[in-house]
Amino acid sequence: MTRKTVRIAMNGVTGRMGYRQHLVRSILALREQGGLDLGDGTVLWPEPVLVGRREHALKTLAERHGIEHFSTDLDAVLADDSVDIYFDAQVTSARGEALRKAIAAGKHLYTEKPTATGLDGALELARLANAAGIRHGVVQDKLFLPGLLKLKRLIDGGFFGRILSVRGEFGYWVFEGDWQDAQRPSWNYRSEDGGGIVVDMFPHWEYVLHELFGRVKSVQALTATHIPQRWDENGKPYDATADDAAYGIFELEGGAIAQINSSWAVRVNRDELVEFQVDGTEGSAVAGLRDCRVQHRSATPKPVWNPDIPATEVFRDQWQEVPDNGEFDNGFKAQWELFLKHVYADAPTTGTCRPAPAASSSPNWA
Ligand SMILES: NC(=O)c1ccc[n+]([C@@H]2O[C@H](COP(=O)([O-])OP(=O)(O)OC[C@H]3O[C@@H](n4cnc5c(N)ncnc54)[C@H](O)[C@@H]3O)[C@@H](O)[C@H]2O)c1
């Protein structure tokens, strides 16, 4: 086995996603498993170079995890020829500029979503990256959730017959920050800082719908800012200028219709923080982050509408659990592995499902 070191500039690793999911659960986890076996006698050994604005925070992280290199100078890191890949998990508003610099420096690119807060910005980045001839990818972690992998298995096995509709419920109550701290960073609630639930969640819905059910042909959404004032990390009140709920309808190629509610102003009365119900001619399923339950056409009850009597059946008990039938790795790590294989082993596929799109057409993998 030859060991090939891959130096990856990781920007935004002091943040929630950058630290927990990408650094600890993906890159450091890959090192703990001995690197990534490319299957051709090579093992990739990822070496993170932490990048950020606060030297002290980076130093603390580097020391905690035995990481040798960190820097507050992005330009210098990008000018370093030994760094192959640039990864970005910064706040959304800081992403475009950093990605443009990394593309200009000829680095391969892997980034959190969204690449931009509007279509023009996203297309510009995708075109720049394609023109530079680099490999580039955007995080699509939800495809690797056990619940959605089970859903994909059902689709591939023909369980649903013709899929008619998909209904998604995503959300939970995000505290305003006054009498209880908010559990999400305050920039998410200011549109001038790249916040908003559409910008945050619709990138996920696009690839989930596309990969599982068909390309999104049209989207309509009513957005709202239900909570107009919030309190930030320092306890200071601020105006919430971004949408905190979106009620969307998506028309899909193949004829299915998806409706997805996304909200940071709902209280959870579901089994999981996100759930999708899929109804097809032959059966239905409800999938969450981990679990998936089904009801086949042959086991469908025949309720009769009669408001004068109490419900005669416990409808939720009439569904059957889909078994795991396998082990599920962390989705972020699984996608890092795919991306690294895409760069270093020329792996031809994207995500879990679709073949690599033409380089000119996709902001995701090329
Ligand atoms: N894939 C997912 O499921 C998922 C989930 C949450 C967030 N995200 C995305 O990840 C990115 C980071 O989100 P997060 O929740 O980790 O945010 P966060 O606020 O916890 O972290 C933001 C990071 O960006 C850095 N940063 C750089 N420039 C900054 C600036 N001008 N102001 C403030 N911070 C700055 C911070 O130091 C920190 O390291 C966002 O683009 C978000 O859309 C993805």
Describe this structure in words.
With 366 residues, the chain is an alpha/beta fold. The protein has 2 domains: 2-139 and 329-344, Rossmann fold (3-Layer(aba) Sandwich); 143-321, 2-Layer Sandwich (Dihydrodipicolinate Reductase, domain 2). It is built from 8 helices and 17 strands. The strands form 3 sheets. It has an 8-stranded mixed β-sheet with strand order 9-12-13-8-14-15-16-17, covered by helices on one side. It starts with a strand and ends in a 22-residue tail after the last helix. Nicotinamide-adenine-dinucleotide (NAD) is lined by residues 12, 14-18, 52-53, 89-92, 94, 112-113, 139, 141, 185, 200.
List the defining traits of the structure above:
2 domains, alpha/beta, Rossmann fold, Dihydrodipicolinate Reductase, domain 2, globular, binds nicotinamide-adenine-dinucleotide, 366 residues, 26% strand, eight-stranded mixed beta sheet, seven-stranded mixed beta sheet
Return the CATH class of the largest domain: Alpha Beta
Biggest beta sheet attributes: 8 strands, mixed
At the fourth CATH level, what is the homologous superfamily of the largest domain?
Dihydrodipicolinate Reductase, domain 2
In this entry the ligands are: nicotinamide-adenine-dinucleotide
What string gives the helices and strands in order?
EHEEHEHEHEHEHEHEEEEEEEEEH
Q: Average the pLDDT over all residues and give the rounded result.
A: 94
Rg of Cα set = 22 Å
Task: Characterize this entry briefly.
This is Gfo/Idh/MocA family oxidoreductase. This protein has helices at residues 16-32, 55-65, 74-79, 95-104, 119-132, 146-156, 197-212, 331-344; strands at 2-11, 36-37, 42-51, 69-71, 83-88, 108-111, 136-138, 163-171, 216-224, 229-231, 237-239, 245-252, 257-263, 274-280, 283-287, 292-296, 320-321.
